[in-house]
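PT: before anyone asks, these are the final sequences, not the draft ones from last week. 436 residues across everything. Please model them as a single complex and drop the result in this thread when it's through.
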Amino acid sequence: MKHYKQSDLAQMKDRERARFVNCLSGFKSANVIGTRDRRQQDNLAIVSSVVHLGSNPPFLGFVMRPQSVTRHTWENIEESGVYTINHVGESFFKRAHKTSARYPREQSEFDACDLTPEFMDGFHAPYVAESSLRIGMQLVEIIPIQHNDTALIVGEVRWVDVQEDVVQSDGYIDIEGLGTMTISGLDGYHSTSRAVRLSYAKPDEELRELHINGETKG
Amino acid sequence: MKHYKQSDLAQMKDRERARFVNCLSGFKSANVIGTRDRRQQDNLAIVSSVVHLGSNPPFLGFVMRPQSVTRHTWENIEESGVYTINHVGESFFKRAHKTSARYPREQSEFDACDLTPEFMDGFHAPYVAESSLRIGMQLVEIIPIQHNDTALIVGEVRWVDVQEDVVQSDGYIDIEGLGTMTISGLDGYHSTSRAVRLSYAKPDEELRELHINGETKG
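LR: through. Structure below.
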């Protein structure tokens, strides 16, 4: 094992430290966030920080930096109060990564990156037609993380659109079956393999392996 | 595609909704959090919400519910101000999942789940010997998410211990090479495959595929 002290991290060059520290949290979710401003200008941004906050009410969060390349997304969410979260799939992950480039405000990343905006009836923000799992979100709260000038965007799920055959009867969604990708660091993209579900853990019981549908194996 | 409205989610049974909504964020990080209280009582808890907050200073966050099964972890972090984050690897993910059972406070999950606590010189919280990437964390701030009674635990990286051969010269850590797992929903465990790195995106440049070490392919 190699040991890195705080001073070792401090002495790294900025880009090296960014690559290193971005790998520490483990695998990240891969989503693109769709937004639209008042003048119908669309925006799409890849985000690797979407995180589950609670299931009742159904809340998801993600981390943003107000002054970063994703500032148009931030401003559109503040202005409209809605956004979409779209799983990044194997079929379009390179186009999704390209949304991280610094496009001017008047250019839609949907156009620039060859992705298709579509709309759910009455919902202001565009979703990504290429995605197999899309979520309509309503902004609940923007919580500042003052120590490092970021914020947690907290939202409530308003609707979910998902390929029907991957939703199991017990509620589990086979996102591996959807081809949803996962991200490492700033630029690593991975497919997953060999899903195993495990039974609910209790102190005095052996764990059981479950099939995707939640039934005990063997 | 199947469409779920807000009212469809509200009508699900609690466990079904929990399984469904926990899959929506995409793939999650798989980590176990090691803590120790003042009386040297250790605790270990699996957490799927660790998220990158920033690289300079190096900040990681994770989401906790004060009254949940992880309340001992919460209390130990408040009391001692330190904790470890340990990547869950293929070799011990079932033992890591077992830490989610409701053990009594006086029982260490290290013992109950057959995992090995070890200590970094002068650092109060135990790390997991079986893990190939362990991080010593100092609590910075606990930020309440009032709308759903959870909190974001914000911490700063104090040290990192990682298998040396996976750290690339540009700073990227090959966590797929480490065997780090990723989680879907409440109970799905996955290995990853076929890492691809992509070049930094710029508006007028084609993306390039990179080797693990950051060099352009082909």
